[in-house]
Write a structure and sequence with these properties.
Belongs to the TRAFAC class myosin-kinesin ATPase superfamily. Kinesin family. It comes from Caenorhabditis brenneri (Nematode worm). It is found in: Cell projection, Cilium; Cytoplasm, Cytoskeleton. There is one protein chain. The protein contains 24 helices and 18 strands. It is an alpha+beta fold and 701 residues long. Among the domains are: 335 residues, Kinesin (3-Layer(aba) Sandwich), CATH 3.40.850; 38 residues. The strands form 4 sheets. Strands 2, 6, 7, 8, 9, 10, 13, 14, 15, 16 and 18 form an 11-stranded mixed beta sheet that branches. A 3-stranded antiparallel beta sheet has the order 3-4-5, with helices on one face. A two-stranded antiparallel ribbon has the order 1-17. The protein starts with a strand and ends in a 6-residue tail after the last helix. The C terminus is likely disordered. The structure holds adenosine-5'-diphosphate and magnesium ion (MG). Magnesium ion (MG) binds next to helix 3.
Length: 701
């Protein structure tokens, strides 16, 4: 069933700067009906209605209990859920997502979700859970793993028909409890990019997504997988206001690219007419694709400042949020998904168990040592044939081939030896290590904890119902109320009538709709000016760079060659341009130097004559700089090592020592609880058992 994106607005208290400047309050709220009123300097108000309105004194606890709690409950049941914080820099996004640990009521959505998930797993009987997390950042349209071994490495976004969009090579960390999750949150948060702008010294200029995957397996073996995305977006403000220049400007432009792409996706979804939703326009929208118009329950927390000097940004945020609430998603429970990590554990345990069965030569549960050995051999032979074929095609040196074949053989022998070395005691230990990663049911008898969770859920539901009732269109209809006297009823009706007249009049007097149009115009105008400003600044930067380049190298290669060409034509050294010749700069050089197979016959005779005059001049010019030697670099011999590296990277082989897929979850990976997204999926994709060589403990020789 389709359901709308739920939107709550949170207004933070005045900060010191605003207090010092004595700025005016421009935001008003009526929390019990989700109303937000924005007051402009000329006294006109704009009214918006949301699924929640949280004023300055609100707490992280209220927001979580009212709107996030039911969503996380759904994630535990196997739905996907996304919570994202939107708003200008300094409006309280990070405060809402992370909050402050020292004030209990102000802990944010992320740590509360951890508590919630682990309470739920502990109090649920007969289900084994596997909880794992990932944390990534999108900075300058590049995706990085905040929990990976190399924070600088850029990761690619990939898409597969069965799995949807995912980040290849993202590390996923198995967690057994709240402290483990918090440790990941803190570690990742400290790895985020921060840059100082005038708005807020510590503001983060990146978008971050913390994801918690909750997989549950019932006793019958069926798996459900819920995924919770906790998104802290970068500031939505216009860059002219931030005073960004140089690197900061470059960042701001890219951030706006992602955010305006998000805006376009929202508009296209709300519009309902467009068949094409531009998810692919930015990394952010690609990754949030499922959360906007897809299989996910979504909440947006729009954060605003109370101060009148942020009126424009607040209006823009409220408009954005107002549009977002019209997006419809179609969430469904993810049952028995192919890429469940739990399945990997199940299979690895089954495999180890089968291997140590007495008479393992026989087939047990479809696994046997003999079968395993044969598969290992096949895999080795295929890899060897591939490698040899590739080398022959590339005609690279025999020595290189020999070396790599030897490494491949050594790897095979190591893996084969592991099969022999597997003794029952060791296998039992490994099985235990894998099973230790599961959690669930530890507090099954704790009725107090169970009741607390139920109570929270009931309260959230009551709150939603109350809000819905308050928003009912007949709420103010005096004819539907019960009055003790006719006079009371008359008074109520009269006052309602007066209110309606006042509303209509004020709309008429202030030309409400015209004003709305003017506002929109104003907003577009601001955007336009902002883009112009960006273009101007980038233009200046480009000019500066050109000047610097000119100082270092008076003219670029291409310009030099073209002017040289022009000059030779004017001087009559080269004939006028004709169609039967390659007139590119490189073509001229190659024609003149008579490269075999390149020169066309009609040109050849002319060249003998031209060369004698031209040779000296050209040689003299080209000799001035090594980097100018285009002909040489054009015919640069291909190094055998380049070909090998290309082949290896094609096969995702990172080093010559590691000739089998590097990131396939090995036993070690599963036991340590660090698995890489692409490896997990590739294995699920091929729908077979783990690659044999890689699935064994390679270092255990
Ligand atoms: P953003 O992430 O949107 O750039 P922050 O969350 O970092 O903004 O908030 C900016 C500042 O305002 C921080 O010092 C934060 O502690 C404070 N702040 C934000 N929201 C609130 C709030 N609701 N109550 C108290 N302080 C807040
Ligand atoms: Mg922030």
């Amino acid at each position: 069933m389709a359901e709308s994106v739920r939107v709550a607005v949170r207004c933070r208290p005045f900060n010191q700067r605003e207090k010092d400047l004595n700025t005016q309050l421009c935001v008003g709220m009526t929390p019990n009906v989700g109303q937000v009123n924005l007051l402009s300097s000329d006294g006109a108000t704009k009214d918006f209605t949301f699924d929640g309105a949280y004023f300055m004194d609100s707490t992280g606890e209220q927001i979580y209990n009212d709107i996030v709690f039911p969503l996380v409950e759904n994630v535990i049941e196997g739905y996907n859920g996304t919570v994202f914080a939107y708003g200008q820099t300094g409006s309280g996004k990070t405060f809402s997502m992370q909050g402050v640990e020292s004030i209990a009521a102000q802990r944010g959505v992320i740590p509360r979700a951890f508590d919630h998930i682990f309470t739920a797993t502990a109090t649920t009987e007969n289900v084994k859970f596997l909880v794992h997390c990932s944390y990534l950042e999108i900075y300058n349209e590049e995706v990085r793993d905040l929990l990976g071994t190399d924070n600088k490495q850029k990761l690619e976004i990939k898409e597969q028909p069965d799995r949807g969009v995912y980040v290849a090579g993202l590390s996923m960390h198995v967690c057994h409890d709240v402290p483990a999750c918090k440790e990941l949150m803190t570690r990742g948060f400290n790895n985020r990019h921060v840059g100082a702008t005038l708005m807020n010294k510590d503001s983060s200029r990146s978008h971050s997504i913390f994801t918690v995957y909750v997989e549950g397996m019932t006793e019958t073996g069926s798996i459900r997988m819920g995924k919770l995305n906790l998104v802290d977006l970068a500031g939505s403000e216009r860059q002219s206001k931030t005073g960004a220049t140089g690197d900061r400007l470059k960042e701001a432009t890219k951030i706006n690219l992602s955010l305006s792409a998000l805006g376009n996706v929202i508009s296209a979804l709300v519009d309902g007419k467009s068949k094409h939703i531009p998810y692919r326009d930015s990394k952010l929208t690609r990754l949030l694709q499922d959360s906007l118009g897809g299989n996910t329950k979504t909440i947006m927390i729009a954060c605003v400042s109370p101060s009148s000097d942020n009126y424009d940004e607040t209006l823009s945020t409220l408009r954005y949020a107002n549009r977002a609430k019209n997006i419809k998603n179609k969430p469904t429970i993810n049952e028995d998904p192919k890429d469940a990590l739990l399945r990997e554990y199940q299979e690895e345990i089954a495999r180890l168990k089968a291997m140590v069965q007495p008479g393992a030569g026989l087939v047990v549960n479809n696994f046997s040592i003999e079968e395993e050995r044969k598969a290992l051999r096949d895999e080795f032979e295929k890899a060897m044939a591939d490698l040899r074929g590739e080398y022959e095609r590339e005609q690279t040196s025999k020595a290189e081939l020999q070396k790599d074949l030897e490494e491949l053989k050594a790897e095979y022998e190591r893996a084969n030896a592991n099969l022999d070395n597997l003794n029952p005691a060791e296998a039992a230990k490994k099985i235990q290590q894998l099973q230790d990663q599961f959690i669930g049911g530890e507090e099954a008898g704790n009725t107090q904890l169970k009741q607390k969770r139920m109570k929270q859920l009931m309260e959230a539901e009551t709150k939603t119902q109350k809000l819905a009732a308050a928003l009912n269109v007949h709420k103010d209809d005096p004819l539907l109320q019960v009055y003790s006297t006719t006079q009371e009823k008359l008074d109520a009706v009269t006052s309602q009538l007066e209110k309606e007249i006042k509303k209509a009049l004020s709309k008429f007097q202030s030309k409400g709709y015209e004003r709305e149009i003017e506002d929109l115009h104003g907003e577009f105008e601001l955007d336009r000016l902002d883009y112009l400003d960006t273009i101007r600044k980038q233009d200046q930067q480009l000019k500066l760079l050109m000047q610097i380049m000119d100082k270092i190298q008076p003219k670029s290669k291409k310009t030099r060659l073209h002017s040289l060409e022009r000059k030779t034509r004017v001087d009559g050294i080269l004939p006028e341009k004709s169609t039967n010749r390659d007139n590119s700069s490189i073509g001229i050089i190659m024609n003149l130097y008579h490269f075999p197979g390149y020169v066309q016959e009609p040109v050849r005779q002319e060249q003998a004559l031209l060369r004698s005059n031209f040779d000296d001049k050209l040689r003299e010019r080209l000799a001035k700089s090594d980097s100018e030697n285009l002909a040489n670099s054009y015919f640069k011999p291909v190094k055998p090592s380049n070909v090998i590296n290309k082949y290896k990277s094609d096969l995702k082989l990172s080093t010559s020592k590691n000739l089998f897929p590097a990131k396939t979850p090995t036993f070690d990976g599963l036991a340590n609880g660090v698995i890489y997204s692409d490896a997990l999926f590739e294995r699920a994709q091929s729908a077979k058992r783990p690659a044999r060589l890689a699935s064994l403990n390679r270092n255990n020789n």
